[in-house]
Amino acid sequence: MRRAAIVDTGARKPSSVRRANFWSSRATMRVASEALPMTSAYFSLILREHGTDARDRAALLAGTGAGREGALEAPGEITLGQQLRQVRNASRLLGPGWALATGSRLHAATHGALGVGAVSAPTVRRGLEVMTRFSQVRAPHFRLVARDERDVVRLVPEDRVELDDEERIPLLDIVLLSTQGLVEALLGRPLHDARFEVSYARPAYASRYADHFHAPVRFGCTTPAVVLPAAWLDVECPLADGAMFEASLASLTDAARRFAGRCPLVARAEHLVAAHGERLSFGAAARALRLSRRTLSRRLHEEGTSWRALLDARKKARAARLLRDPELGFGDVAAALGFDDTANFGRACRRWFGMSPGAYRRRAAALG
Which in 58, 135, 146, 356 has the greatest CB count within 10 A? Predict the structure, then answer.
C-alpha cells in the first residue's frame, strides 16, 4: 500500500518573509508601546539636571514634542515615546554614564504613589510587593520581578519594550539606582550587604559606579538584578504608615486597572482624566493627545467609550471613595464632586450604583 503523503495544510512562508514579519511585528509593538502614558517627573528631572544652558536644553528636547522651555501639552503627563526620545538625546549629548548622577537623585517622592506606597509599608516584604506589582504603572518600559533564590531575593527589572543600547543602559542604571533608594528607605540604612548585577560589559567609566551604588556592582551578568539577603524581608520599616500605605495602594490599583488591556489611546486619555478631571476640556485633551477633536471622538467611540464617559467613570470612582468616609456629609461629597445640590448627586448615585448615597454608605460599611 502506498503511504499517503503528509501534507502541511498551512503553507510555510520563506524564512526571509518570516523574518520580515517578525521585525514588522516588533516595530508595531514598539510604536504602540511608545503611545503609553507615563509621568513627566523623570523627563523634568533630566531636563533640570542636564539642560544647564539653552543649547543643552534644546538638544534634550529635540524631537520630544515639548516646547522650547520644556513645557508639556499636559502638565504631569508624557508618553513613553517622549521619554525614550529624551533618553536617546541625553546619551548623545552627555555621553556614556550620564544616568548615574540622575538615578542617584531620585527619591521616594519622585516616584509618586509608588514611592510613597513602598516606603510607608509595614515591612520590607510588603514594600517590595508594591514595587514589583506596580512598577510598570510609573514607568511602562519595564516591570520589576522578585525571585526567591535560597538565602537571597533577586529584584529583576524586565524590559517590556524593545530598547536600543543607548536607551537600555541608562534606563537600567536609573532603575537600579531608584530601587536602591527605595529599598534603603524601607530598611532605614544603606545597602552595603546587597549587590547589583548588570547585563552589559564593564564600561570604561566603571570607576564612577562606586560614587553612586552603595554595594558591589557585577558587570556582564546574564540578567540585571538587585540581590538582597532574604533575611531583610521581615524587617519592619521605619517610615511605616498604615493610612498612607492603604491610600497609595488604592491609587496604584486604580492606575493599574486603567492600563490593563486597554488601547494606548484610551489609557492616555484616562491618564489625563485622572490627573486633571473636568478642569481639562475636551479640546485641551485633544491637543495634549495631538489629535483633532473629531479624530479623538471617533477613536474613543471605536474603543467603546467617550470623553464624557471617562469623566463620569472618574467621578463615580471618586464618589465611591468619598462615600466610604463616614466623617463626610452627603452635601460635602456632592460639593467635592461638583454637584450643585444633593438631589442631583443622589440621582447620579442611583445611576452609578443602583442605590442612594446613604444605602451605598451602609453597604460599604457592612462589607468593611
Answer: 135
Element (DSSP H or E) covering residue 345: helix 342-353
| CA-based nearest residue to 367, from 324, 317, 333 | 324
Backbone angles phi, psi at 3, to 5 degrees: -75, 130
> What is the rounded distance in angstroms from the CA atom of residue 151 to the CA atom of residue 129?
18
The total number of residues shown for the chain amounts to 368
CATH assignment of 242-367, among 3.30.750.24, 1.10.10.60, 1.10.8.60, 1.10.287.3510: 1.10.10.60
* Residue 130 in grid coordinates: 508594591
Q: How far, CA to CA in Å, does 3 sit from each of 7, 8, 11, 82?
A: 12, 16, 21, 60
Is pLDDT of 11 > 80? no
Question: What are the structural domain ranges in the chain?
Answer: 25-95, 103-234, 242-367
- Core vs surface per residue 299-318: b (16+ CB within 10 A) or e: bbeeeebebeebbbbbbeee
Instruction: Tell me how many degrees the CA angle 69-61-107 measures, rounded to the nearest 5.
Output: 85
Q: Which of 24, 23, 30, 71 is nearest to 264 (CA)?
A: 30
Yes or no: say if 265 and 273 are a contact pair by the CB < 8 Å rule. Answer: no
Predicted local distance difference test score (pLDDT) of residue 4: 34
Contact 333, 323 (CB under 8 A): yes
Cα 34–chain centre separation: 13
pTM of the model: 0.70
Decide if pLDDT at 192 tops 70.
Answer: yes
d(CA 276, CA 5): 65
